[in-house]
Amino acid sequence: MVTKALKSEYTFNHEKIMVEAKTGAKRKLIDYRVTPPRPYNTKKVPGNVWNFNRVRFKMEEYENHPTQKPEALLERIILASSNENDIVLDPFGGSFTTSAVAQRLGRRSISIDLNPEFFKIGIRRLQLVKEYNREKIVKIKKRKTNNKSRKDHIIDSRNILNLDNWGRVNEKTN
Ligand SMILES: C[S@@+](CC[C@H](N)C(=O)[O-])C[C@H]1O[C@@H](n2cnc3c(N)ncnc32)[C@H](O)[C@@H]1O
């Protein structure tokens, strides 16, 4: 149970993570639930459901880890719940997204991972070392799934049907 006294020790920097409030403000409505009535706020604290794009292969932040989290997600969590120079701990670091973002935001951090391959990704990502066990650490970019992008599907179907970029039958080869 969280008592009132304990609760006051939590860090919650709500002002650092405000998002656009679409309803009401966008339609320039007046909020009559408050006294005196005033225009709806244009910013709000994010609700219970957060939407972030997954990390895609072509993105700079992409790492070779099967469940890598988006930096934008960690940024919101770290900004809201810590201050500069605080220590952020992630005991299941994976590709060390938490530490990478913590570093960028001026926090100190500790990330731990059981798997040496992920640990290697992490120390490279944080630019802590260039070598591990006397081997140079290089960024390995490999797709996590064999699923094709929409663009790849379009290219494939053009090739199968022998169509040009405009969807016409390619006459040069027919
Ligand atoms: C969900 S992933 C974390 C992904 C991470 N947030 C990222 O953005 O890449 C969980 C990680 O915890 C690691 N792990 C699982 N059990 C562990 C343990 N007992 N101690 C340390 N790491 C562990 C796994 O190797 C895996 O990389």
Notes on the structure:
This protein is an alpha+beta fold. It folds into 3 domains: 1-49, no CATH class; 52-143, Vaccinia Virus protein VP39 (Rossmann fold), CATH 3.40.50.150; 149-174. The chain is built from 5 helices and 8 strands, in the order H-E-E-E-E-H-E-H-E-H-E-E-H. The protein has helices at residues 4-7, 71-81, 97-104, 116-125, 150-161; strands spanning 19-20, 30-31, 38-39, 43-44, 87-90, 108-111, 131-132, 135-136. It is flat. It binds S-adenosylmethionine. S-adenosylmethionine is lined by residues 65, 67-69, 92, 94-95, 97, 112-115, 118. Residues 65, 67-69, 92, 94-95, 97, 112-115, 118 line the site of S-adenosylmethionine (SAM).
Helical content band:
25-40%
Return Rg in Å: 24 Å
Overall body shape:
flat
Could you tell me the number of beta strands? 8
Strand order of the largest sheet: 1-4
Bound molecules: S-adenosylmethionine
Largest sheet: 2 strands, antiparallel
Mean pLDDT: 89
How many H/I helices? 5
CATH architecture call of the largest domain: 3-Layer(aba) Sandwich
Name the CATH class of the largest domain: Alpha Beta
User: What's the SSE pattern?
Assistant: HEEEEHEHEHEEH
